[in-house]
């Protein structure tokens, strides 16, 4: 049995394996020095060294004539590898092979340490209000620290308003990436569309495609399968649902839609899945977390269909978009 | 006084010595002794990778444009012609396709970053498993652990700069983790990003200055202190003939070690350049530019972030809400608490070891083999295995793509493994170490104990012949 265990960790132990059995060894002097390089080694090192500029010139020529990544890497890598060979060969065969013994410096010097302590104490000799002075110095240091650190506040607006901001308003139309209005009739089951608010301005104005509050996922399901909370009963006209596309776990774009082809045999229903940490949100019941690390449901956007068949927001998102933070209202 | 040509020191040495009085220091340096063990080279590999990173990074910085303002791409990569991309992404494509040797520099830089963090990690394992963090090296150990954390941060900053799809997805997660900090998360993250993610255009230049100046300057400074402390204390060494606590046995700097170490530098650089030239890495033109509403499936970060993405994925959906407010968002647990505990344990190791594990406050310059301290080795292996399980969990999606293992089942499996594997690892490691120590066996070189023979008076004598035989076989 112990043999089996040895084999299991053999490699791990080998990596850090010691040199010799410890135990009491007789006092020996390990110093040694051998000189005298074999003639063949000198010639070999010369030959390898002479190959270095050949490879280096190849690199230069390639760089000027045909800077192909693979060939450049091969040429420069070969140059360095030849240099490494020459250095290691010279270290192993040409120069004296030497083992030396060096005394380790004694680090601690208790006498000096005591003197330093005493000298430091002497530095405040004759001062009576030491505590008061130390306190005043501490206050001065704290003040200075505050003054030095406060410019960090210039880094950003730090406005939590920005975190709650959403460009969605009741009545705002859903448009695709090119800005074309999204028609309810174009949303078919098992498909997955990304929509943005129409006319919400640029990212700087609190809208635009680059704003985290903008993108929503639009899917259509069989209205009979919906399990939305009572107050959201009219949020999904014709079974069309819109959810924020930004995961409430870590702000990645939710770009996977799981929609089992045969609901009768699959135990799991349609769900939106984030590819970063695989938080899985139930589409049918208002975006609750079915699996994965997300801590709260995906915000849902109430929808309505206008007379022209265009999808429009019927209100605000059901919660803050994106990851949670200390004190966010949810 | 007349000097003959023969007894005058070398002109160059005399030149320096007469102006700086440096000859003494140079002699000290040339006599400096390096103990020989292959595992001592891991730190040097990290050092040389850092040099390669600085050189290639300087080249890249000449061409990179840290600006997320949108522009229309007109470069030589046809698939993205006419697309709206950021200047940062466009300049990364420019480096890759239009600058001579640009793609080579980019790929060498990326490979060097991966090797840099890997070498630091292996170096750390060597330090932990041989007890090299004990007094007087605890200070240098803290610097080393800090360097590992900074190297991971620096690598992530570099990975995030090109503004490709994977950069953006990584930054989105980093933003969520920053937001999840208790109390200060919201204001902290919005201040750092200059607004809500993806933030203002200021963020890219902040990231750039952190990646090319702040972090490398701190890393370089700490490396210098790290090396200076090593030279002050001298290297630790494994026990062996003539090796004692109060000496160092090995190859002097001049000439043997200098040549060998320069050879290692050239070899590391050669390997990194060959990898950069021949093995493609992070082809950002295939990922495409980042937009907050785009995501891709099966994405994996650089290897050294695998344990963090694994922790974020393994964490059950716990999020602390009360009184209509959020208190602790979920990413805090995997993204802050878990790495915080791992690094906290690493920082606490010297104290834990002298207070609870070895109960030894003395100075040590001779190293232990893992078997010499079975409890420490077992605890370290248990911690390592916990991180390894989380690391493996980070690739559960790839397990699904490659082998068809169901993702949800895999997550539950890894959650269980996270609790069970460290316990098993602890027990197995402890038992194996104790067994090896008892038998004085080396897992690869076999038995290396002493033969004793009972003599007539009932005592035991070492059998000189058998010992010699044993030594000769080794």
Brief account:
The complex is a heterodimer of chains A (330) and B (474). With 330 residues, chain A is of the alpha+beta class. In chain A, 32% of the residues lie in helices and 14% in strands.
The CATH homologous superfamily of the domain at 163-325 in chain A corresponds to Rieske [2Fe-2S] iron-sulphur domain
In the sheet with the most strands of chain B, the strands line up as 1-4
Annotation field: number of helices of chain A: 6
Q: From the coordinates shown, what is the CATH architecture of the domain at 36-296 in chain B?
A: Up-down Bundle
Structure description:
Chain A is of the alpha+beta class and 330 residues long. Among the domains of chain A are: 33-97; 163-325, Rieske [2Fe-2S] iron-sulphur domain (Rieske Iron-sulfur Protein). Chain A has 6 helices and 13 strands. Chain A has helices at 2-16, 39-65, 69-94, 110-122, 130-149, 160-164, and strands at residues 32-34, 97-103, 174-175, 193-197, 216-220, 240-244, 256-258, 271-273, 280-282, 289-291, 300-301, 303-305, 311-313. A 5-stranded antiparallel beta sheet of chain A has the order 3-4-5-6-11, with no helix packed on it. Chain A has a 4-stranded antiparallel beta sheet with strand order 7-8-9-10, with no helix packed on it. In chain A, helix 2 (39-65) packs antiparallel against helix 3 (69-94). The longest helix of chain A has 27 residues, at 39-65. Chain B has 474 residues and is mainly alpha-helical. Chain B has a domain at 36-296: Cytochrome Bc1 Complex, Chain C (Up-down Bundle), CATH 1.20.810.10. Chain B contains 17 helices and 10 strands. A two-stranded antiparallel ribbon of chain B has the order 1-4. A two-stranded antiparallel ribbon of chain B has the order 2-3. In chain B, helix 5 (102-129) crosses helix 10 and helix 6 (138-160) runs antiparallel to helix 9. The longest helix of chain B has 33 residues, at 407-439. Chain B is globular, with a radius of gyration of 27 Å. The relative contact order of chain B is 0.10. Chains A and B meet through helix 1, helix 3, strand 2 and helix 6 of A and helix 5, helix 7, helix 8, helix 9 and strand 4 of B.
């Amino acid at each position: 049995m112990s043999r089996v265990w040895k084999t299991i960790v053999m490699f791990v132990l080998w990596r850090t394996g010691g040199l010799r059995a410890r135990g009491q060894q007789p006092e020996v002097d390990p110093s040694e020095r051998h000189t005298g390089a074999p003639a063949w080694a000198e010639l070999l090192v010369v030959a390898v060294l002479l190959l270095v500029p050949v490879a280096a010139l190849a690199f230069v020529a390639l760089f000027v004539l045909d800077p192909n990544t693979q060939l450049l890497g091969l040429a420069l890598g070969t140059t360095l590898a030849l240099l490494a060979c020459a250095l290691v060969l010279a270290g192993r065969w040409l120069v004296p092979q030497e083992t030396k013994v060096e005394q380790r410096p004694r680090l601690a010097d208790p006498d000096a340490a005591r003197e330093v302590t005493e000298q430091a104490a002497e530095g405040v000799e004759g001062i009576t209000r030491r505590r008061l002075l130390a306190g005043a110095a501490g206050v001065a240091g704290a003040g200075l620290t505050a003054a030095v650190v406060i410019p960090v506040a210039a880094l950003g607006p730090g406005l939590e308003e920005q975190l709650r901001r959403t460009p969605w308003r009741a009545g705002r139309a859903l448009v695709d990436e090119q800005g074309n209005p999204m028609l309810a009739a174009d949303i078919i089951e098992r498909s997955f569309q990304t929509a943005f608010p129409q006319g919400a301005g640029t990212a700087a104005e609190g809208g635009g495609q680059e704003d985290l509050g903008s993108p929503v996922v639009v899917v259509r399901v069989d209205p009979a399968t919906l399990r939305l909370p009572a107050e959201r009963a009219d949020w999904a006209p014709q079974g069309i649902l819109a959810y924020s596309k930004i995961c409430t776990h870590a702000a990645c774009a939710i770009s996977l839609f799981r929609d089992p082809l045969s609901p009768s045999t699959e135990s799991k229903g349609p769900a939106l899945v984030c590819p970063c940490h695989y938080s899985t949100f139930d589409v049918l019941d208002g975006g609750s977390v079915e699996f994965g690390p997300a801590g709260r449901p995906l915000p849902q956007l109430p929808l309505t269909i206008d007379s022209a068949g265009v999808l429009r927001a019927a209100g605000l998102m059901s919660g803050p978009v994106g990851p949670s933070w200390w004190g966010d209202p949810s | 006084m007349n000097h003959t040509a023969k007894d005058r020191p070398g002109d160059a040495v005399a030149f320096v010595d007469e102006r700086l009085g440096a000859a003494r220091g140079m002699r000290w340096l040339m006599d400096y002794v390096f103990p020989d063990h292959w595992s001592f080279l891991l730190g040097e590999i990290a050092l040389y990778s850092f040099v390669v990173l600085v050189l290639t990074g300087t080249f890249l910085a000449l061409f990179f444009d840290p600006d997320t303002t949108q522009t229309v791409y007109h470069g030589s990569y046809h698939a993205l012609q006419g697309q709206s991309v950021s200047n940062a992404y466009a300049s990364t494509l420019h480096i890759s396709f239009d600058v001579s040797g640009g793609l080579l520099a980019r790929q060498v830089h990326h490979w060097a970053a991966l090797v840099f963090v890997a070498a630091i990690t292996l170096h750390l394992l060597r330090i932990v498993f041989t007890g090299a963090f004990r007094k007087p090296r605890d200070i240098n150990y803290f610097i080393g652990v800090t360097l590992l954390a900074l190297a991971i941060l620096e690598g992530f900053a570099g990975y995030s700069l090109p503004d490709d799809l994977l950069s953006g997805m990584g930054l989105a997660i980093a933003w969520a983790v920053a937001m999840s900090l208790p109390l200060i998360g919201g204001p902290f993250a919005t201040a750092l990003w200059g607004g809500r993610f993806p933030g203002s255009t200021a963020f890219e230049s902040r990231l750039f200055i952190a990646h090319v100046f702040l972090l490398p300057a701190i890393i370089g400074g700490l490396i210098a202190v790290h090396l200076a402390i090593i030279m002050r204390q001298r290297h630790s060494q494994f026990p062996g003939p003539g090796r004692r606590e109060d000496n160092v046995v090995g190859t002097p700097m001049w000439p043997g070690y200098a040549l060998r170490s320069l050879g290692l530098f050239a070899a590391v650089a050669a390997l990194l350049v060959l990898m950069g030239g021949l093995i493609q890495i992070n082809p950002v033109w295939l990922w495409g530019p980042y937009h907050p509403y785009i995501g891709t499936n099966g994405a994996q970060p650089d290897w050294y972030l695998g344990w963090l993405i694994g922790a974020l994925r393994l964490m059950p959906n716990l999020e602390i809400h009360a009184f209509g407010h959020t208190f602790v968002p979920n990413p805090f647990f995997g993204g802050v608490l878990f790495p915080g505990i791992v690094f906290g344990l690493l920082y606490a190791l010297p104290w834990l070891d002298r207070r609870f594990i070895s109960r030894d406050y003395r100075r040590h310059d001779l190293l232990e083999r893992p078997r010499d301290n079975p409890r420490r080795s077992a605890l370290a292996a248990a911690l390592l295995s916990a991180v390894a399980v989380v690391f493996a969990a980070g690739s559960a999606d790839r397990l699904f793509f490659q082998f068809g293992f169901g993702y949800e089942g895999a997550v539950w499996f890894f959650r269980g493994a996270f609790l069970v594997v460290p316990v098993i690892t602890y027990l197995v490691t402890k038992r194996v170490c104790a067994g090896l120590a008892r038998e004085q066996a080396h897992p690869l070189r076999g038995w290396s104990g002493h033969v004793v023979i009972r003599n007539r008076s009932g005592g035991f004598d070492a059998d000189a012949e058998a010992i010699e035989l044993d030594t000769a076989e080794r």
